[in-house]
Amino acid sequence: MAAMSESTLETTTVSSDDTVICGCANLTVAELHSFASGGNSFDYLLAKTGAGGGCTSCLLDLEYHFERTAVSKPRRRAREAGADAARGLKRRVYDWLDRHSPLVPFVRTQFGPVLHGPGIEQWILIANHKLLYKDEFVPPAAKVATTVRDSEGRALAEASQHVQVGETLRINLTDLSRKARLDEATDEAVNSGLSAGTFELRCQWLTPGMRGTARPQILIAAQGGTTAVHTVGPSRNLERWIACVNRPDSERAFISVVNPSKRELTARVSYPFSVEGCDPVAHEVVLPPMGARLHEVTLRPELAAVVGSQPFNVLISCRGQKNVHVVLASPGLDRLSIDHL
Amino acid sequence: MAYNYLVPRVSPLLADYNCTGSINVAELIKRLRDARATLRHTVRIYHEGAIVDERVQILDIRDGALANSVVERYSWTAVGAMWGDIPGFLEEDVRVVDGAQLFASKHNRPTYVAHWSPCRKGYLINLSPKFADPRAIDQIAEFNRFVDTCSTVWVDQERDYGESFIFVNPFTQPIVVKIQAEDGRTIRGTKIPPLSGRRVGLDRLLRGNERSWQGQVQITASNRLLISNCKHSFSDPSDVTDLEHLDPYRTDPTHLPAFKWLRIRFGHLRSALGADMRRLKT
Predict the structure, then answer these.
(1) Which pairing describes strands B37-47 and B65-66: parallel, antiparallel, or unpaired?
(2) Residue-wise burial string across B203-223, b where 16 or more C-beta atoms lie within 10 A, e elsewhere
């Protein structure tokens, strides 16, 4: 992403220092640079100069130039000072090689949970649309390969499809995994009514271009509502925190962990934190290779009595790559919301 | 480059949904150059152009640890605020008290805040940067306009699936918004007043006797603003299932130079073998 930012910004026309960027406040590019390079915030620039506060047509330009200054100044200074000449040479060689290398497609591989429960249906949506406001920008077509696995990591189904420009590809993960799932109901699923398998998604674009709208989305429909979240690649973050409120009559909270690796993985879900007089309890979640587990956040009665209605924190810790999601559900599982951590 | 602030972060607030978040002091300390600073942490609640609540705390950080006592959790009790159908928003602001440039990075780590309402399930939503989002900056460079997208719209009266967009304008000038669907359906001319939120029901995309519609929409506006997709009951829009940020129309490349691809693969391999990539980057 960082590399993309640089190349995009380099291709944009650079205004000269005396160009007026806000006609209402008579602010020049040089004055804007001086504010930005002083470590001040964008809010401060707007408040101090009055720029962007008249006709407002320059607000996007102001933000772009403000950020561009922050990105480019250190590099420019380093060049002027001739600092770290060896690295400069390496950079130049790399740039030359990059310019002369053939282009290869990014293959984005993403994992996530497939939720199974009463009346729950889940899709992956990949919309590949041109920019509706600027007809000349058309994204490339893409090839999408999907593998659905059960909670133990066993492959249930595979599909390979193309998504052309102007299309939205809808992959029904529930249908793909339906046949084999019936005989793998775990104790967890029997107890909670909700269980998780996994999906693996590999996206590859067929010709060079920009991604546009094509970030895959998870869409889940339950009996009383829908929820959606974009897909993400596996994360190596050691710890993630979320806040919960213990309201078993109104809401259930589940932590979903997907193991994208071919080795067993152990995660730990600990809570409640940030409540005086409560010692957090750690729950170990062992994930088979390529498998998934769902942990329901529940407090023992004696802890629930101390916590009451106060919000408390939940810590999810795990070494190694994984995908972690939080699912908040109504008690009857007829409404769900999902977020990635 | 060093900074005397972190980019403020904003999250929408809906009527009747309480909200709680916490200050992640460890993450703040990681962003300091010398693990030493006096910071002002402010949480403001805005509704219809006015600050309706504000909480300020001083964080005294010395030798990489918090040296004073602070209340790390902040909460907003919406029940009884009588906001009706008009959303507000929460803004978190962190600055160095004396203005010294002590932050090595101006971006805070993504954080969720939890929202809940009595007798209803809650939802989580992240705090989004008020400005300086790299993807939005790339987009402005490429298209010279702000375009957010949402491909999961599903309005269905039979199933009681309703949706709205929640627009938050955290700036001091009004912003005009246009919503356009892939098949030409349009909602034009929605004006978001300064420091305010607005909710636009997507049942307005239904034509004539239609009872359901699914598709992709793109939203453009006269300035950048924060947009969330609210999934709720069709018959009672105040009963929320989920709230999720939208995606910018992305300018990320689909291809990269083969030599760069090799470098990335090499980096992944070293990382998998346990190399300290932070040290390698310096």
Answers:
(1) unpaired
(2) bebbeeeeeebbbbbbbbbbb
Are the C-beta atoms of B209 and B240 separated by less than 8 Å? no
Distance from CA of B243 to the nearest CA of A (A): 8
Interface confidence (ipTM) of the complex: 0.91
CB B24 within 8 A of CB B31: no
Distance CA B185, CA B114 (A): 33
* Interface mutation target, options A335, A338, A341, chain B, most CBs of B under 10 Å: A335
Dist. CA B242–CA B240, nearest whole Å: 6
* Lookup: tokens for A328: 């908040």
DSSP A172-211: EHHHHHHHHHGGG--HHHHHHS-EEEEEEEEEEESSS-EE
Q: Are B93 and B11 in contact (CB under 8 A)?
A: no
Cα-only R_g, chain A = 25
Dihedral sign for Cα atoms in the order A185, A186, A190, A192: negative
Q: 3-state SS of chain B: helix, strand, coil percent to 5?
A: 15, 50, 35
Residue type, B180: Q
Residues B216 and B182: beta-carbon distance below 8 Å: yes
Q: How far apart are CA A243 and CA A274, in angstroms?
A: 10
Nearest to A299 by CA among A242, A239, A253: A253
**B232 inside 8 A of chain A by CB:** yes
Buried b (16+ CB within 10 A) or exposed e, B68-95: eeeeeebbbebeebebeeebbbbbbbbb
Q: For residue A339, give the nearest of B75, B124, B175 by CB distance.
A: B124
Residue of B nearest to A223 (CA): B159
Rounded to whole angstroms, how far apart are CA atoms A162 and A141? Answer: 7
What pTM does this model have? 0.87
DSSP per position, B7-51: EEEEEEE-TT-EEEEE--HHHHHHTBSSS-EEEEEEEEEEETTEE
Give B253→chain A minimum CA distance, Å. Answer: 5
Per-residue pLDDT of chain A (341 residues; tens, 9 = 90+): 333 333 333 333 445 677 788 878 888 888 888 877 777 788 888 888 888 877 777 888 888 888 877 655 545 455 545 545 556 788 888 888 989 999 999 888 999 999 999 999 999 999 998 887 766 678 899 999 999 999 999 999 999 999 998 899 999 999 988 765 554 555 455 556 899 999 999 999 999 988 888 789 999 999 999 999 999 988 887 788 898 989 989 999 999 999 999 999 999 999 999 888 888 999 999 999 999 999 999 999 989 999 988 889 999 999 888 999 999 999 999 999 999 98
Q: How far is A42 from chain B (nearest CA, A)?
A: 7
* Spacing of C-alpha B228 from chain mean position: 8
